[in-house]
Amino acid sequence: MNAWQIVAIFAAGIAAGTINTVVGSGTLITFPILLAFGYAPVTANVSNTIGLVPGSVTGAVGYRRELIGQENRVVPLAISSALGGLVGAILLLSLPASAFKAIVPFFIAIALILIVVQKRLNRVIGHHRRGHGEGIGPAALIGAFASGIYGGYFGAAQGILLLSIFGLTINDELHRLNAIKIISAGVVNLVSGIVFVIAAHVAWDAAGLIAGGSIIGGVVGARYGRRLPPNALRALIVVVGVIAIIRLV
Asked: Most exposed among 40, 75, 78, 104, judged by the fewest C-beta atoms under 10 Å?
């Protein structure tokens, strides 16, 4: 690995950590970079997943105020996400990569539609959601589990999927939901990363550079992302999601 590759991967880690904290889809920056530098797709995905874990930690610390009073949400959602991440990681190591990746753009498109029509959809279907600090229903847990499977397998735009799921199943402010998203996505990366360390080939040089960058990115994302108005954050989610679809198709 030459100096240019070291700088590029580290910078990609910073960008990915920032985007993951604010929205999601940071994988769409680091994963292609690793592919461009000659890493095999599965190795790139595995190394990227492990590298992004520390960024989730610093991002969660930055959103600690928004996590206050949400302990009874965070724990069950984290467990559901962890179980999903375990299943997804096993699928990645067992199935052809093309099988699931082929439908990734459709998942992202559905998530973006849900983000855009979230308020109107809730009014139309009369969906009952709980208020601040209260519990969660089965739909949120099932959604976290399903998103965890997706995140454990590939992970791109997992944050967008989680935000759309939480927005439809939990009644709260977007920034507070984003804080839960950071925890849930981070747990998925952690659990799947442990599986990858045990059973897959990891490019530790790349994973280490992404990890270092994502730590910085998590701090940056938490500092500036939580200052965005909810409508601006939704707009950013849509923009990143559209870019994700373009990059994957």
From this structure: 75
**Are 26 and 17 in contact, with CB atoms under 8 Å apart?**
yes
Average pLDDT (191-209) is: 95
Domain with 29, as residue range(s), is 3-248
Cβ atoms 90, 149 nearer than 8 A: no
**Could you tell me if 155 and 188 are in contact, meaning their C-beta atoms sit under 8 angstroms apart?**
yes
Contact 189, 56 (CB under 8 A): yes
* Window from 85-99, 112-126, 233-247 with minimum mean pLDDT: 112-126
Angle between helices 41-51 and 27-36 (to 10 degrees): 140
Number of domains, the chain: 1
Burial of 190 (0-12, 13-18, 19+ CB in 10 A): buried
- Summarised one tens digit per residue, pLDDT across range 114-138 is 777 766 655 654 444 444 545 688 9
Q: What contacts 192, CB < 8 A, 6 or more positions away?
A: 49, 85, 86, 88, 89, 92, 151, 152
Enter the pTM of the model.
0.84
Q: Are 154 and 101 in contact (CB under 8 A)?
A: yes
Give the CB-side neighbour count of residue 23, counting CA atoms within 13 A. Answer: 29
